[in-house]
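Can't paste images in this forum, so I'm doing it all in text. The chain is below; anyone willing to post the predicted structure tokens underneath?
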Amino acid sequence: MWAPESVRKRFKDLVKNGLKGSGDYGVVAVGLYGGQGPNRSDANHLPHVVGRATWPFAFENGQIVEVGAQYYWGRFVAEPDEVDLGGGLVTPDQPSNGATDQRGGLSFVLYPQPIGLDVEWNVGEGPELAPDGDRIEARFLHGGYVQLSYRQPTSIGEFFPFTRWNYYAGGRKFATNAPQSTVNEIDLGFEYSPWKEIEVVLSYTHSFERTNTRSAPYDQTKNADRIGAQVQWNY
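Text version of the structure:
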């Protein structure tokens, strides 16, 4: 990872000033990593390759806009199991070294001073169970999110109301058999931070469509609602 000193300070200030910066991961980054996911051993001796470039532009009025692009490539070995999608019980086959797993994405962040906007979208291909259930192969995927937020400091802490649209269509590679998954949801909520160490979030989510990827036949849940709460302690 590399970034000039002036930009490293800018990344640091984004976090210090509570603007939801992610930290200093450089303006250019390249790397190799085990692409099989957390708590899973390597399955094909082929690391994933990742590259990223980003730049936080600072304007005279103090506003900061960050744009970036990222890409990774590798091969992913899914976890197959017996499945019946209507044609009888089968165990899906897959290439011995896994299916192609690659994505390219673009991102845009307008840091909340006081209005914030985050947009990220990616396209690629990854492991996905074929419609007949007899194989796991590389298939097209795409998805991302758009989030609008507002930062309001007060004498009793900071408030961050937000709304976010999430969308994804493609294989869920970390699930057994990597079934096709569709997620189309909108979130409404707010975060309250009485001190910089504590963040409390309440949110409401409406799912227009979400695939149950836990078990076949991987039905779609439509027009569902949920409420979430989270307390985070930063140290």
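The longest helix spans residues 5-16. Residues 15 and 22 are 7 Å apart (CA to CA).
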